[in-house]
Amino acid sequence: MQVVVLTGGIGSGKSEAAKQFAALGVPVVDVDAIAHQLTAKGQAVLGQIQLLFGADFLLADGSLDRAKLGAQVFAHPELRLKLESLLHPAIYEAAMQQLKENAKKSASPYQILVIPLYFESTRYHEVADKVLVIDCPEALQIERAMQRNGSTAASVQAVMQAQVSRARRIEGADEVIDNQGSLAALQEKVGLIHKKFIKTCIVNK
């Protein structure tokens, strides 16, 4: 089973595209979802984060204060590196396990691996057979991200500046979906590229 990496900048519509691939019967592995699972209350990784950063980064119920931790590591690159060295190997191992399980269980000739920061790291490059970028103009990225979680334009722009450029993502893509239209338009484009992947993945098996 081939692996199609799905990536894109903040607010580009990666999550919605992934949902639409899943609705078409394509297995989806999402590294952000894995990160949330690994840092959930009661998980060993959360205990390691507490040891590293302190109990101040836990909420009253003992779960991770993701917003507070995110703001801290974003403002302090050395802390971000510490968190990444803890989280990324565990996330990678879990993602590889899910990919293997999907390959055993699903009849689909390909599966989707959602990695927001694919171009910022080389960790997953060796497993990618194709790279699909979900793209939209930067002004629309900012607008969508602000609507989604109440962020300010400045905070969204700061995240964008920490990511590779839109041009770099497009340059590194095998396929690009232009997602500056409606959900229906995105659904149509996902359907078309799904048919293309089915054909090319079967041919290249």
Give the topology.
Layout: E1 2-7, H1 14-23, E2 28-30, H2 31-38, H3 44-53, H4 66-75, H5 77-105, E3 110-114, E4 130-135, H6 138-149, H7 153-162, H8 166-171, E5 175-178, H9 183-203
Parallel strand pairs: 1-3, 1-4, 2-3, 4-5
Helix pairs in contact: 1-9, 2-5, 3-5, 4-5
Descriptive overview:
With 205 residues, the chain is α/β, with parallel strands linked by helices. The chain has nine helices and five strands.
Shape: globular
Q: What fraction of residues sit in β-strands?
A: 5-15%
Q: How many extended strands?
A: 5
Largest β-sheet summary: 5 strands, parallel
SSE pattern? EHEHHHHEEHHHEH
- Unreliable runs: none
Which structural class fits the helix and strand makeup?
alpha/beta
How many helical elements? Answer: 9
Into which percent range does the helicity of residues fall?
A: 55-70%
What's the level 1 CATH class of the largest domain? Alpha Beta
